[in-house]
Amino acid sequence: MVDLTEITTEQLVAEMQRRLNCQTKPEKHVVLAGPPGCGKGTQAPKLKSEHCLCHIATGDLLRAAVAAKTPLGSEAKKAMEAGALVPDEVVVSLIEEHIGKPDCRVGFILDGFPRTVVQAQKLDEMLEKKGTHVDHVLNFEVPDSVLVERISGRLVHPASGRSYHEKFQPPKRAGVDDITGEPLIRRKDDNVDTLKNRLATFHSQTTPVIDYYQKTGRVAKITADRPKEEVSAQIRAAMS
Protein backbone atom coordinates (compact mmCIF):
# COMPACT_ATOMS: atom_id res chain seq x y z
CA MET A 1 0.00 0.00 0.00
CA VAL A 2 1.22 3.52 -0.86
CA ASP A 3 2.28 5.67 2.10
CA LEU A 4 0.23 8.83 1.56
CA THR A 5 2.48 10.81 3.90
CA GLU A 6 5.14 10.69 1.19
CA ILE A 7 2.83 12.37 -1.35
CA THR A 8 2.45 16.15 -1.37
CA THR A 9 -0.92 17.83 -0.92
CA GLU A 10 -0.59 19.28 -4.43
CA GLN A 11 -0.11 15.79 -5.88
CA LEU A 12 -3.12 14.45 -3.98
CA VAL A 13 -5.33 17.33 -5.14
CA ALA A 14 -4.15 16.89 -8.74
CA GLU A 15 -4.94 13.17 -8.61
CA MET A 16 -8.39 13.83 -7.13
CA GLN A 17 -9.09 16.38 -9.86
CA ARG A 18 -7.95 13.91 -12.52
CA ARG A 19 -10.29 11.26 -11.16
CA LEU A 20 -13.19 13.69 -11.04
CA ASN A 21 -12.54 14.69 -14.64
CA CYS A 22 -12.49 11.04 -15.66
CA GLN A 23 -16.03 10.59 -14.31
CA THR A 24 -17.41 12.59 -17.23
CA LYS A 25 -15.30 11.03 -19.98
CA PRO A 26 -17.24 8.99 -22.57
CA GLU A 27 -16.47 5.28 -22.78
CA LYS A 28 -14.02 4.37 -25.55
CA HIS A 29 -12.42 1.13 -26.67
CA VAL A 30 -9.41 1.64 -28.89
CA VAL A 31 -7.12 -0.68 -30.86
CA LEU A 32 -3.68 0.57 -31.88
CA ALA A 33 -2.41 -1.05 -35.07
CA GLY A 34 0.97 -0.45 -36.62
CA PRO A 35 4.37 -1.99 -37.35
CA PRO A 36 7.30 -2.01 -34.92
CA GLY A 37 8.81 1.45 -34.56
CA CYS A 38 5.69 3.28 -35.79
CA GLY A 39 5.31 5.39 -32.62
CA LYS A 40 2.45 3.62 -30.81
CA GLY A 41 4.53 3.55 -27.62
CA THR A 42 4.97 7.33 -27.76
CA GLN A 43 1.31 8.13 -28.38
CA ALA A 44 -0.35 5.56 -26.09
CA PRO A 45 0.47 7.36 -22.79
CA LYS A 46 -0.98 10.62 -24.16
CA LEU A 47 -4.12 8.84 -25.35
CA LYS A 48 -4.43 7.10 -21.98
CA SER A 49 -4.13 10.37 -20.07
CA GLU A 50 -6.46 12.44 -22.27
CA HIS A 51 -9.27 9.87 -22.31
CA CYS A 52 -8.73 8.18 -18.90
CA LEU A 53 -8.26 4.77 -20.51
CA CYS A 54 -6.24 1.79 -19.36
CA HIS A 55 -3.39 0.71 -21.63
CA ILE A 56 -3.24 -3.03 -22.30
CA ALA A 57 -0.07 -4.31 -23.96
CA THR A 58 -0.74 -8.02 -24.39
CA GLY A 59 2.94 -8.96 -24.08
CA ASP A 60 3.12 -7.31 -20.65
CA LEU A 61 -0.22 -8.88 -19.71
CA LEU A 62 1.06 -12.37 -20.50
CA ARG A 63 4.31 -11.88 -18.61
CA ALA A 64 2.45 -10.57 -15.56
CA ALA A 65 0.04 -13.52 -15.57
CA VAL A 66 2.91 -16.01 -15.84
CA ALA A 67 4.82 -14.28 -13.03
CA ALA A 68 1.70 -14.25 -10.82
CA LYS A 69 1.11 -17.98 -11.53
CA THR A 70 -2.58 -17.45 -12.22
CA PRO A 71 -4.55 -20.27 -13.93
CA LEU A 72 -4.44 -18.40 -17.25
CA GLY A 73 -0.78 -17.60 -16.65
CA SER A 74 -0.06 -21.30 -16.19
CA GLU A 75 -1.77 -22.07 -19.51
CA ALA A 76 0.25 -19.36 -21.23
CA LYS A 77 3.48 -20.63 -19.67
CA LYS A 78 2.88 -24.18 -20.95
CA ALA A 79 2.50 -22.87 -24.50
CA MET A 80 5.55 -20.62 -24.24
CA GLU A 81 7.75 -23.37 -22.83
CA ALA A 82 6.64 -25.67 -25.64
CA GLY A 83 7.66 -23.03 -28.17
CA ALA A 84 4.04 -22.58 -29.27
CA LEU A 85 1.89 -19.48 -29.59
CA VAL A 86 -0.31 -18.74 -26.59
CA PRO A 87 -3.86 -19.79 -27.60
CA ASP A 88 -6.08 -16.90 -28.68
CA GLU A 89 -8.69 -17.94 -26.11
CA VAL A 90 -6.16 -17.50 -23.29
CA VAL A 91 -5.14 -14.03 -24.47
CA VAL A 92 -8.77 -12.91 -24.88
CA SER A 93 -9.59 -14.26 -21.41
CA LEU A 94 -6.67 -12.31 -19.94
CA ILE A 95 -7.94 -9.16 -21.66
CA GLU A 96 -11.43 -9.85 -20.36
CA GLU A 97 -10.09 -10.17 -16.81
CA HIS A 98 -8.11 -6.96 -17.10
CA ILE A 99 -10.88 -4.76 -18.52
CA GLY A 100 -12.95 -5.59 -15.44
CA LYS A 101 -10.49 -3.65 -13.27
CA PRO A 102 -11.31 -0.12 -12.00
CA ASP A 103 -8.68 1.61 -14.15
CA CYS A 104 -10.48 0.30 -17.27
CA ARG A 105 -13.88 1.66 -16.21
CA VAL A 106 -13.94 4.29 -18.97
CA GLY A 107 -12.40 1.99 -21.58
CA PHE A 108 -9.12 0.65 -22.88
CA ILE A 109 -6.32 0.94 -25.39
CA LEU A 110 -5.30 -2.43 -26.84
CA ASP A 111 -1.72 -2.50 -28.07
CA GLY A 112 -0.37 -5.62 -29.81
CA PHE A 113 -3.72 -7.35 -30.25
CA PRO A 114 -5.49 -8.41 -32.40
CA ARG A 115 -2.82 -9.48 -34.88
CA THR A 116 -5.04 -11.78 -36.97
CA VAL A 117 -8.64 -11.76 -38.19
CA VAL A 118 -9.45 -14.75 -35.97
CA GLN A 119 -8.18 -12.82 -32.94
CA ALA A 120 -10.26 -9.79 -33.97
CA GLN A 121 -13.35 -11.98 -34.23
CA LYS A 122 -12.75 -13.55 -30.81
CA LEU A 123 -12.21 -10.11 -29.29
CA ASP A 124 -15.46 -8.86 -30.84
CA GLU A 125 -17.34 -11.90 -29.53
CA MET A 126 -16.08 -11.29 -25.99
CA LEU A 127 -16.93 -7.58 -26.09
CA GLU A 128 -20.34 -8.25 -27.62
CA LYS A 129 -21.25 -10.44 -24.63
CA LYS A 130 -20.47 -7.40 -22.48
CA GLY A 131 -22.68 -5.20 -24.63
CA THR A 132 -19.86 -3.18 -26.13
CA HIS A 133 -17.42 -3.15 -29.06
CA VAL A 134 -14.19 -1.65 -30.44
CA ASP A 135 -14.90 2.03 -31.18
CA HIS A 136 -11.70 3.13 -32.92
CA VAL A 137 -8.88 1.36 -34.73
CA LEU A 138 -5.97 3.76 -35.13
CA ASN A 139 -3.84 2.48 -38.00
CA PHE A 140 -0.33 3.94 -37.74
CA GLU A 141 1.15 4.02 -41.25
CA VAL A 142 4.87 4.55 -41.78
CA PRO A 143 6.93 3.61 -44.87
CA ASP A 144 9.14 0.59 -44.23
CA SER A 145 12.25 2.58 -45.19
CA VAL A 146 11.54 5.07 -42.37
CA LEU A 147 10.98 2.25 -39.88
CA VAL A 148 14.35 0.70 -40.72
CA GLU A 149 16.07 3.99 -39.92
CA ARG A 150 14.07 4.44 -36.71
CA ILE A 151 14.68 0.96 -35.36
CA SER A 152 18.33 0.57 -36.34
CA GLY A 153 19.26 3.67 -34.32
CA ARG A 154 17.19 2.90 -31.24
CA LEU A 155 18.83 2.71 -27.79
CA VAL A 156 17.10 1.50 -24.63
CA HIS A 157 17.59 1.84 -20.87
CA PRO A 158 16.81 -1.74 -19.76
CA ALA A 159 15.62 -0.99 -16.22
CA SER A 160 13.04 1.68 -17.09
CA GLY A 161 12.27 0.99 -20.75
CA ARG A 162 13.14 4.59 -21.69
CA SER A 163 14.13 4.73 -25.32
CA TYR A 164 16.37 7.06 -27.29
CA HIS A 165 17.52 7.33 -30.88
CA GLU A 166 21.02 8.08 -32.10
CA LYS A 167 19.68 10.54 -34.69
CA PHE A 168 16.15 11.63 -33.72
CA GLN A 169 16.31 11.64 -29.90
CA PRO A 170 19.89 11.19 -28.67
CA PRO A 171 20.69 11.04 -24.95
CA LYS A 172 22.40 14.07 -23.41
CA ARG A 173 25.56 12.02 -23.07
CA ALA A 174 26.32 9.38 -25.68
CA GLY A 175 25.49 5.86 -24.58
CA VAL A 176 23.99 6.61 -21.15
CA ASP A 177 20.50 7.22 -19.75
CA ASP A 178 19.67 10.90 -19.08
CA ILE A 179 18.20 10.22 -15.63
CA THR A 180 20.32 7.46 -14.09
CA GLY A 181 23.55 7.72 -16.07
CA GLU A 182 23.40 3.96 -16.59
CA PRO A 183 24.46 2.39 -19.93
CA LEU A 184 22.00 2.17 -22.80
CA ILE A 185 21.74 -0.97 -24.90
CA ARG A 186 20.71 -1.87 -28.43
CA ARG A 187 18.20 -4.72 -28.43
CA LYS A 188 19.23 -7.84 -30.32
CA ASP A 189 16.23 -7.64 -32.64
CA ASP A 190 16.76 -3.93 -33.41
CA ASN A 191 18.68 -4.62 -36.61
CA VAL A 192 17.84 -4.33 -40.28
CA ASP A 193 17.55 -8.04 -41.12
CA THR A 194 15.36 -8.88 -38.14
CA LEU A 195 13.18 -5.83 -38.73
CA LYS A 196 12.58 -6.71 -42.38
CA ASN A 197 11.38 -10.17 -41.34
CA ARG A 198 9.14 -8.67 -38.65
CA LEU A 199 7.69 -6.18 -41.12
CA ALA A 200 6.94 -8.92 -43.65
CA THR A 201 5.10 -10.89 -40.96
CA PHE A 202 3.28 -7.78 -39.77
CA HIS A 203 2.03 -6.83 -43.23
CA SER A 204 0.85 -10.36 -44.08
CA GLN A 205 -1.05 -10.74 -40.78
CA THR A 206 -2.31 -7.27 -40.02
CA THR A 207 -3.51 -6.01 -43.42
CA PRO A 208 -6.48 -8.45 -43.29
CA VAL A 209 -7.24 -7.23 -39.72
CA ILE A 210 -7.44 -3.63 -40.94
CA ASP A 211 -9.70 -4.77 -43.79
CA TYR A 212 -11.89 -6.59 -41.24
CA TYR A 213 -12.42 -3.45 -39.15
CA GLN A 214 -12.64 -1.20 -42.23
CA LYS A 215 -15.97 -2.81 -43.13
CA THR A 216 -17.51 -1.29 -40.01
CA GLY A 217 -16.01 2.15 -40.58
CA ARG A 218 -13.95 2.06 -37.39
CA VAL A 219 -10.47 2.54 -38.91
CA ALA A 220 -8.69 5.89 -38.88
CA LYS A 221 -5.48 6.25 -40.86
CA ILE A 222 -2.73 7.92 -38.86
CA THR A 223 0.17 9.20 -40.96
CA ALA A 224 2.76 8.41 -38.32
CA ASP A 225 5.97 9.51 -40.06
CA ARG A 226 5.19 13.09 -39.04
CA PRO A 227 6.38 15.08 -35.97
CA LYS A 228 4.91 13.80 -32.69
CA GLU A 229 2.65 16.83 -32.25
CA GLU A 230 1.12 16.35 -35.71
CA VAL A 231 0.51 12.65 -35.00
CA SER A 232 -1.18 13.55 -31.71
CA ALA A 233 -3.41 16.04 -33.55
CA GLN A 234 -4.45 13.36 -36.06
CA ILE A 235 -5.35 11.03 -33.19
CA ARG A 236 -7.43 13.71 -31.43
CA ALA A 237 -9.32 14.33 -34.66
CA ALA A 238 -9.97 10.62 -35.14
CA MET A 239 -11.20 10.23 -31.56
CA SER A 240 -13.53 13.24 -31.60
TrEMBL record:
Enzyme class: transferase
Domain Adenylate kinase active site lid: residue ranges: 154-189
SUPFAM superfamilies listed in its UniProt record: P-loop containing nucleoside triphosphate hydrolases
UniProt cross-references to InterPro entries, sorted A to Z: Adenyl_kin_sub, Adenylat/UMP-CMP_kin, Adenylat_kinase_CS, Adenylate_kinase_lid-dom, P-loop_NTPase
Keyword Transferase among record annotations: yes
Enzyme Commission designation: 2.7.4.3
Swiss-Prot/TrEMBL catalytic activity: AMP + ATP = 2 ADP
Function: Catalyzes the reversible transfer of the terminal phosphate group between ATP and AMP. Plays an important role in cellular energy homeostasis and in adenine nucleotide metabolism.
HAMAP family in the cross-refs: Adenylate_kinase_Adk
Protein family (similarity comment): Belongs to the adenylate kinase family.
The protein's name: adenylate kinase
Organism whose genome encodes this protein: Apatococcus lobatus
